[in-house]
């Protein structure tokens, strides 16, 4: 363990005490202060090997001070803490040159690990911070713990060109995340090009991606540029990647391996410089087992896996999202609206099978169709009960209603089969359903036991080694915490 001198700045005396004791206990020298002026005096005098600071200080915002710190001592790592917990807080911390961002409340074990990693890393000259020349928009909304993990991951990815695979149910905001990666990343000056594999006829996907030459096929009367060419220097978002036919998968794999492609009907290789962000609401491992998706392509795309939680997993974000969508509706000329507490509670307890997209549509209906400025619980109940399935049932049940797992799965499968109309779902449904149930089951057990694998294995009735294997295969990441190991703002 590398020991060092740590400078801590926080307006909260309790947090200063906890950090001082925890850092001193493992051998670090600690100096604490409650204001930014003292911190800046220490830093400018050459003191300290690492800084831990809250964003909001009584005399200055840490984001205003960070550029001065990075200019005076570019190799000094700065860990930023904040109780604001928004996407833009994480992004601004990254842009200002912070080594790491931690939302409050934070886990002490994780903080100590970050401190040790920062002190042990060889010192590298820091990149010049990006000018703060754009308004603080909110491309992603929510302050829940689930969204904090997403924000921190995105902040780390902004200054890289690593390929990202976004997974999540329909309506969770996969394209929104892809756009945020582009608009706040290194390629923001280049184009963002999106293509939905499920919306294009299978025999045209290769032409859409790579372009075609005149006469390449019947109807090709002139040369056409593909999405790779259109996205040159920027980001190419491949949505619903699980619907890509095998022939196109092979060509995409070549692009990822060799950095070049040929147009349909062309012979000259074309070099490409794009960042790939892919997304799917399907289980690609199941498609691999069925021979419908290339395993080597999966590993090329899955460099950085990013799973978006369903809205029911972040119910505490519902009020923020509703206010956000009402504000958008008001900007579009609709009357300002608010939902009364009883109605808000009902919305927070709803299962949201359509996720954020379903919530946005509901808010738009409320803003457009109802004259009341305050929306009561009766209107909310009527709206939720009106979102029935094609069979005419009462729609998905609120999560507060006692429903067996079997009944919930049966309800879901009825809606799933009905979505195909007269057709049948793709083959392999049995394994696909089992795989979809396994992830939330293991995640729930890990969350309930606060990341304790021994207790989670006992809860699930699994061997601990078997649980470890499943955690690794499913990509589950739950930080281990203790009741006393978390510090609140």
From TrEMBL:
Gene Ontology cellular component list: cytoplasm
UniProt keyword list: Activator, ATP-binding, Cytoplasm, DNA-binding, Nitrogen fixation, Nucleotide-binding, Phosphoprotein, Repressor, Transcription, Transcription regulation, Two-component regulatory system
SMART domains: AAA, REC
Superkingdom in the source lineage: Bacteria
Parts of the chain that traverse the membrane: none
Annotated localization: Cytoplasm
Residue numbers carrying 4-aspartylphosphate: 54
Cross-referenced CDD domains: AAA (cd00009), REC_RcNtrC-like (cd19928)
Gene Ontology molecular function, alphabetical: ATP binding; phosphorelay response regulator activity; sequence-specific DNA binding
Entries under InterPro entries matching the protein: AAA+_ATPase, AAA_lid_NorR, CheY-like_superfamily, Homeodomain-like_sf, HTH_Fis, P-loop_NTPase, Sig_transdc_resp-reg_receiver, Sigma_54_int
Response regulatory domain ranges (all copies): 5-119
UniProt keyword ATP-binding present: yes
Domain named Sigma-54 factor interaction: residues: 140-368
Function: Member of the two-component regulatory system NtrB/NtrC, which controls expression of the nitrogen-regulated (ntr) genes in response to nitrogen limitation. Phosphorylated NtrC binds directly to DNA and stimulates the formation of open promoter-sigma54-RNA polymerase complexes.
NCBIfam families: ntrC (TIGR01818)
Protein's UniProt name: DNA-binding transcriptional regulator NtrC
Gene: ntrC
């Amino acid at each position: 363990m590398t020991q060092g001198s740590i400078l801590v700045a926080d307006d909260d005396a309790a947090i200063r005490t906890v950090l001082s004791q925890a850092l001193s206990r493992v051998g670090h020298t600690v100096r604490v202060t409650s204001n930014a002026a003292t911190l800046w005096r220490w830093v400018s005098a050459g003191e300290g090997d690492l800084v831990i600071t809250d964003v909001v200080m009584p005399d200055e915002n840490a984001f205003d001070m960070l550029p001065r710190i990075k200019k005076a001592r570019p190799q000094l790592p700065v860990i930023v803490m904040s109780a604001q917990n928004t996407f833009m807080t994480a992004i601004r911390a990254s842009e200002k040159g912070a080594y790491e961002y931690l939302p409050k409340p934070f886990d002490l074990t994780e903080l100590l690990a970050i401190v040790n990693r920062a002190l042990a890393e060889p010192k590298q000259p820091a990149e010049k911070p990006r000018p703060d020349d754009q308004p603080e928009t909110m491309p992603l909304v929510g302050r829940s713990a689930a969204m904090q993990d997403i924000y921190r991951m995105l902040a780390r990815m902004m200054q890289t060109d690593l390929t990202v695979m976004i997974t999540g149910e329909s309506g969770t905001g996969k394209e929104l995340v892809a756009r945020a990666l582009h608009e706040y990343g290194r390629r923001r000056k280049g184009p963002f090009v999106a293509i939905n594999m499920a919306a294009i006829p299978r025999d045209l996907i290769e032409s859409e991606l790579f372009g075609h030459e005149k006469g390449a096929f019947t109807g090709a009367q002139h040369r056409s540029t593909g999405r790779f060419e259109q996205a040159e220097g920027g980001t190419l978002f491949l949505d619903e990647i699980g619907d890509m036919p095998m022939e196109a998968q092979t060509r995409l794999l070549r692009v990822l391996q060799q950095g070049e492609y040929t147009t349909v009907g062309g012979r000259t290789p074309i070099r490409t410089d794009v960042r790939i962000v892919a997304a799917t609401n399907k289980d690609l491992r199941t498609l691999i087992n069925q021979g419908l998706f290339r395993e080597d392509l999966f590993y090329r795309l899955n460099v950085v896996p990013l799973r978006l939680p369903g809205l029911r997993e972040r119910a505490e974000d519902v009020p923020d999202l509703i206010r956000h969508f009402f504000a958008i509706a008001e900007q579009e000329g609709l009357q300002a609206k608010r939902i009364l507490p009883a109605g808000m509670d009902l919305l927070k307890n709803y299962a949201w099978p359509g996720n954020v997209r379903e919530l946005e549509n509901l808010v738009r209906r409320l803003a457009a169709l109802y004259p009341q400025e305050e929306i009561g619980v009766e209107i909310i109940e009527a709206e939720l009960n009106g979102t029935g399935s094609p069979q005419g049932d009462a729609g998905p049940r609120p999560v507060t209603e006692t429903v067996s797992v079997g009944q919930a799965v049966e309800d879901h499968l009825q809606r799933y089969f009905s979505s195909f109309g007269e057709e049948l779902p793709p083959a392999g449904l049995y394994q696909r359903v089992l795989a979809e149930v396994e992830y939330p089951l293991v995640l729930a057990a890990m969350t309930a036991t606060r990341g304790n694998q021994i207790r989670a294995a006992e809860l699930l009735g699994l061997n601990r080694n078997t649980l470890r294997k499943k955690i690794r295969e499913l990509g589950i990441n739950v930080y281990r915490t203790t009741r006393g190991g978390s510090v609140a703002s």
